[in-house]
Amino acid sequence: MTDFRSEVIAAGGEGITACYQCGTCSGGCPTVSAMDYTPRQIIRMVNLGMRDRVLSSRTIWLCATCYQCQVRCPREVKITEVMAALKSIAMREGYNSHVARPRAVSFYRSFNEIVSNLGRQFEPLLLMKTALGSREGITSKLGYLLRSAPFGIALMKKGKLPFRPEKISGRDEVRRIFENVARMEAGE
Question: Could you tell me how far CA 16 lies from the centroid of its own chain?
């Protein structure tokens, strides 16, 4: 049986053993104040094999994927990829029921599904799928959509948000990438 650290590395979290806990990642993180553990603490907990605490953490879902931590890391730890790997493991193992933000898992799943199907992101669909796929009640889902609508309409009027998804070349290639990842995760 493999340990948690090896599982995270295999899922894309390369370089975590190189971390010497300097804290640079946490110091530059724009969302650290909302996290239950800092990125530095998450890396340490992964290295210590603290599987349940890490996968139950809000931190992995609050990572903004801005790459600030990764760019600044003196040991070149792929922290953003570690967080993505942890999200994937948490979703696969059902830890998403512990997430404090009810739309976080739905956003992550919807984002990947849309890119897989369309070859790129389409924000209006992402908003709808995120809201409707969350574990919130119908009143909260509709409230979120209604609060978001004026902003979306304003962006569409200014031409900043397309009304329909743009067709891209290579859509099948993008879909095959997602299919390969799914096969790898299934151990094929």
Answer: 18
Distance CA 144, CA 136 (A): 10
pTM exceeds 0.90, yes or no: no
Distance, in Å, from the CA atom of 20 to the CA atom of 113, rounded to the nearest integer, reads: 36
Inter-helix orientation angle 104-118/123-133, to 10°: 140
> How confident is residue 112, by pLDDT bands cut at 50, 70 and 90?
confident
Q: Are 56 and 45 in contact (CB under 8 A)?
A: no
- Which among 119, 107, 134, 124 has a CA at the least distance from the CA of 167? 119
Q: Among positive and negative, which fits the CA dihedral 165, 166, 172, 174?
A: negative
Specify the residue for token string 């953490």.
Answer: 57
Contact 119, 174 (CB under 8 A): yes
Helix axes 138-157, 123-133, angle to 10 degrees: 170
Those residues with Cβ within 8 angstroms of residue 3's Cβ, 6 or more apart along the chain or in another chain: 49
- DSSP label at 115? H
Average pLDDT of the residues in 109-129: 89
Q: How far is 139 from 144, CA to CA, in rounded Å?
A: 9
